[in-house]
Amino acid sequence: MRKLFLFICLSSCFQFLSAQSFDPQLFSKLNFRFIGPDGNRMISVVGEPGNPNVSYSGAASGGIWKTDDAGITWKAVFDSTEDSS
Q1: What pLDDT, on a 0 to 100 scale, did the predictor assign at position 25?
Q2: Where are the domains of the chain?
Q3: Is the C-alpha dihedral spanning 20, 26, 29, 34 positive or negative?
Q4: Considering the entire predicted model, what is its pTM?
Q5: Which of 39, 37, 71, 41 has its CA nearest to residue 54?
Q6: Mean pLDDT by 10-residue block, N- to C-terminus, for the chain (85 residues)?
Q7: What strands lie across the sheet with 75-78, from one edge to the other?
Q8: Which residues pair with 56 in a beta bridge?
Q9: Is there a contact between 66 and 60 (Cβ–Cβ < 8 Å)?
């Protein structure tokens, strides 16, 4: 009985995996492109209420970046400051 149950489970898994086929031509025209501000990782992100195209991001290395076209281009708003200590 256990072997039969195991066989049914495995055969249904293989049927599920074989149903997940795709045409490689769908991905042939995709090219790598950089999206987001220059620099390293972002540590904070905030949007503008009522305007989904505007966002601000704070970089871990410093600097605040703004986009007003839903992330296609980014501009430095606040890139550096003098140390006040």
Answers
A1: 84
A2: 37-80
A3: negative
A4: 0.48
A5: 71
A6: 74 59 78 65 87 89 86 80 49
A7: 42-48, 51-59, 64-67, 75-78
A8: 46, 66
A9: no
